[in-house]
């Protein structure tokens, strides 16, 4: 390579940064003096750099960076390339300017900012390009410590986005490849959670473009504990592999890159990608065509670009986005693009036969669906009425779905004038007929609850006890089975909102979220005036589930659940995983500002 040639440099380093301001000043001074353009991201936990310039300038930059002991052992990936043109590709990739920013995370691993990122120190073992190739060549017989082999099955996991895997991926004849088919990297944790059984007990070989995404993802898989220990990653990513195996080795197609080069191939010129509309072989993203709905890059050949500029990607089509009239594509055309029997690839979202065009897209933004669980001795109707203001103020971003709990309660009344329920008679007068009142339900009941409900009213055997919730500990299994049926018949739901006893139920579901995968799937819980149930799931380990806790701060205003009880429940959720809203009211969900704004801010993180 001539030093007068243009080049691109990629490197990252995970390490504690003692002085971010000093390091930022170094990059500003060094990159500007050397005429380097591109992206520099700094965080308290490391750096991630993609810059371009003359090869001589890039080599000088590497030399200067290496003088800092912080970067000991860093893999600097330097490649020659054509000079970026002043076009939309270079601008979109950030190669027309120098951008140096301090960020919270080098790569955004989760779309839920409440979830704590995995510890990179727990990342999978690095395999060199040669070791990675050798493992694939031996069809899954992974060497332990370079000496002995075992019989654990081997699986390849692609940690990249769908638009990257469309044009190139690894393929080994005897190895299963998992392609998550995700729109963005922050969707990967959810995919791993939903498909963990495909990884359990196996040797997992991960790969990505340059390696940084595998650091986070492999650590996340390993954090799942027993059965997920054997995770390995391609050191230096696909880029280092193609340098070692210029004929492509086990990699087919092209490696998508996030700079003006767009993609980098091997000496094998075969095309893996296909036009979204006509299905013809195509893998050129230089036109930067995007899905009209979600803005993900899509492959549209030159001929089809002339016919339309409205497209809906595979993922939006899979999630039932209205795509209008779709001309048919013959099966023979699709089969000529890719032999699905030849590539043993499992992909959750990417289905070749769904690569069809869009016309006249006019799709309203998707709302969150939230299942609402009422409190003790309430019902769906009463909770819906009391939550009408909340539903109205959230209507643009969320749909609230109300259901009755499964345990029906008897009609009871206090024999005194303090009763304030419109269906409860005052002292000395006969109770109204039960047909005039709506049934009341519960998620949990007292151990002595018989389950049989009488048709008429009966007098309560004791005065109202504000601490009665502490005795209502039975009936969880019945409620859990009932909710599984609700999710199956009325789902999917993005989150669960619970009030009082319903909040206690929602918190317990959050604690069991991993156990319930596949039957009760949700992304967050909203716990209003909640309390902790005396179950092991609540008391032992911190709960790793995004949560919003809403309760009154004045212990005298909520006669039902005291503030310290709700505050304790919030503390059981993992630090950084929960948001707390304390208000000055009683046993309600406040809907005035600033509380409603805080609720909206929480929900918008999941849109």
Could you describe the 3D structure shown?
This protein has 607 residues and is of the alpha/beta class. A 6-stranded parallel beta sheet has the order 6-13-12-9-11-17. Strands 19-18-24-25-26-27 form a 6-stranded parallel beta sheet, with helices on both faces. The model is unreliable at 142-149, 322-363 and 417-429 (pLDDT under 50).
Task: Summarize, please.
Helices cover 25% and strands 19% of the residues. With 607 residues, the chain is α/β, with parallel strands linked by helices.
Labels describing this entry:
19% strand; 6-stranded parallel sheet; 607 residues; elongated; 18 helices; alpha/beta
């Amino acid at each position: 390579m001539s030093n007068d040639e243009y080049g691109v440099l990629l490197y990252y380093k995970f390490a504690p940064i003692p002085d971010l301001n000093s390091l930022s000043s170094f990059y500003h001074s060094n990159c500007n003096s050397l005429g380097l353009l591109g992206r520099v991201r700094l965080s308290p936990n490391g750096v991630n750099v993609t810059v371009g310039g003359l090869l001589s300038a890039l080599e000088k930059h590497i030399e200067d960076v290496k003088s800092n002991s912080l970067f000991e052992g860093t893999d600097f990936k330097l490649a020659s390339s054509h000079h970026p043109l002043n076009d939309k590709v270079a601008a979109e990739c950030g190669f027309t300017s120098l951008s140096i920013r301090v960020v919270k995370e080098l790569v955004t691993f989760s779309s839920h900012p409440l979830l704590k990122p995995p510890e990179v120190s727990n990342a999978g073992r690095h395999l060199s390009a040669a070791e990675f190739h050798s493992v694939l060549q031996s069809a899954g017989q992974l060497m332990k410590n370079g000496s002995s082999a075992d019989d654990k099955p081997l699986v390849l996991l692609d940690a990249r986005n769908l638009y990257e895997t469309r044009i190139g991926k690894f393929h080994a004849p005897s190895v299963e490849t998992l392609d998550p088919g995700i729109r963005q990297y922050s969707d990967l944790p959810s995919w791993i959670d939903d498909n963990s059984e495909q990884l359990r007990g196996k040797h997992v070989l991960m790969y990505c473009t340059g390696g940084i995404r595998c650091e986070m993802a492999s650590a996340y898989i390993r954090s799942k504990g027993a059965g997920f220990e054997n995770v390995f990653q391609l050191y230096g990513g696909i880029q280092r592999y193609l340098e070692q195996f210029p004929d492509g080795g086990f990699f087919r197609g092209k490696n998508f890159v996030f700079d003006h080069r767009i993609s980098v191939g091997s000496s094998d010129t075969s095309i893996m990608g296909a036009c979204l509309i006509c299905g013809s072989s195509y893998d050129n993203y230089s036109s930067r065509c995007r899905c009209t709905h979600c803005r993900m890059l899509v492959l549209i050949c030159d001929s089809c670009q002339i016919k339309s500029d409205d497209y809906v990607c595979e993922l939006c089509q899979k999630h039932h986005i209205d795509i209008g009239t779709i001309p048919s594509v013959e099966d023979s055309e699709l089969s000529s693009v890719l032999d699905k029997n030849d590539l043993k690839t499992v992909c959750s979202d990417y289905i070749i036969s769904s690569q069809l065009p869009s016309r006249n897209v006019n799709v309203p933004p998707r709302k969150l669906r939230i299942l609402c669980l009422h409190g003790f001795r309430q019902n769906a109707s009463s909770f819906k009425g009391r939550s009408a203001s909340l539903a109205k103020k959230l209507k643009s971003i969320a749909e609230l779905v109300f259901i009755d709990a499964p345990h029906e309660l008897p009609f009871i009344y206090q024999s005194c004038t303090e009763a304030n329920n419109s269906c409860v008679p005052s002292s000395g007068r006969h109770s109204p007929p039960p047909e005039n009142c709506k049934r009341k339900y519960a998620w949990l009941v007292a151990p002595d609850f018989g389950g049989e409900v009488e048709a008429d009213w009966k007098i309560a055997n004791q005065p109202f006890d504000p601490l009665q919730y502490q005795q209502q500990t039975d009936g969880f299994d019945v409620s859990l089975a009932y909710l599984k049926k609700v999710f199956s018949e009325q789902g999917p739901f993005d989150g669960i909102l619970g009030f009082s006893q319903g909040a206690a139920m929602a918190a317990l579901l959050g604690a069991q979220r991993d156990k319930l995968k596949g039957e009760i799937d949700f992304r967050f819980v909203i716990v209003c005036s909640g309390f902790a149930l005396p179950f092991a799931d609540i008391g032992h380990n911190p709960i790793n589930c995004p949560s919003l806790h809403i309760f009154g701060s004045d212990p005298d205003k909520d006669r039902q659940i005291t503030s310290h009880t709700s505050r304790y429940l919030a503390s059981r959720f993992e630090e950084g995983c929960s948001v707390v809203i304390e208000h000055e009211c009683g046993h309600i969900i406040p809907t005035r500002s600033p509380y409603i704004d805080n609720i909206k801010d929480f929900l918008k993180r999941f849109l």
